Amino acid sequence: SARVTLRRLDEMKAAREPIVMVTAYDFATARLADRAGVDMVLVGDSGAQVVLGHDSTAEVTVEEMLVLAAAVRRGVSAAFVVVDLPFGSTELSDAQAVETAVRFVKEAGADAVKIEGGGAARLSRIRAIADAGIVVVAHVGLTPQTAVALGGLRAQGRSEASAERFAREALAVQDAGASLLVIEAVPADVVDVVLPAVAIPVIGIGAGAADGQVLVAHDLLGITEGKTAVFVERFAAVGDAIHAGFAAYADAVRSGAFPAAEHGYRAPAEAVAAAAR
Ligand code: KIV
Ligand code: NA
């Protein structure tokens, strides 16, 4: 299918065609998502947790994200590829943020970069990256990189002050030059009163219907173990399938059922004889 462009995403918003976005962190999964027809693939810094085993997204490095992003890029032919700018790679200055964003475009082939937050310094970063000609996806509401400062991984926009901040930031990131907006963990009622003023496509996660949805692949595929956020729905039981596959393999090796003759190579009798000499 045709490559998804920013223009196509704008058209989808205008036509009220829901935009489908999912995370991926490796070649094989990205290719499966692309072939399934998702519109956007996000190389999320959630990879810090779901593929690298860290406790928070803040622990993943630019170098690690570059490896994941380049692998995803190689697996995607149609979807629009967005890469998260990890914590620490944009905080020092606009110049640092532009330098990081340029690396994800040049070294990993990102179509866009995503940056969390909508405070004054964040707006300056968004403006600087957009001015460099790189498509910026903003991310407001719950911003996991700075969740400690937000009081933990909890929904935003549930107090007057928090709802006011959310509304202000959602509009400000658009004015600063963001081309797309991710809203995470904000009550739909609060999102709904702000959306009419947002012209760019809005992708929600725990934020109501918006123009599209994003979920972490491991969550929606049923690979993530234990408790997941309220906004997660499991659409498959891939974790169970992987477990069953490994267990069946282990059983077959231990019982001698694997390998069978058909899993091996054959040699002519002369080669066997030569090996025995
Ligand atoms: O890193 C991530 O997976 C994300 C999505 C949840 C939006 O930022
Ligand atoms: Na993220």
TrEMBL record:
Keywords: Cytoplasm, Magnesium, Metal-binding, Methyltransferase, Pantothenate biosynthesis, Transferase. Mg(2+) binds at residues 45, 84, 116. It catalyses: (6R)-5,10-methylene-5,6,7,8-tetrahydrofolate + 3-methyl-2-oxobutanoate + H2O = 2-dehydropantoate + (6S)-5,6,7,8-tetrahydrofolate. Its cofactor is Mg(2+). It is found in: Cytoplasm. Its EC number is 2.1.2.11. HAMAP family: PanB. Belongs to the PanB family. This is 3-methyl-2-oxobutanoate hydroxymethyltransferase. It comes from Microbacterium telephonicum.
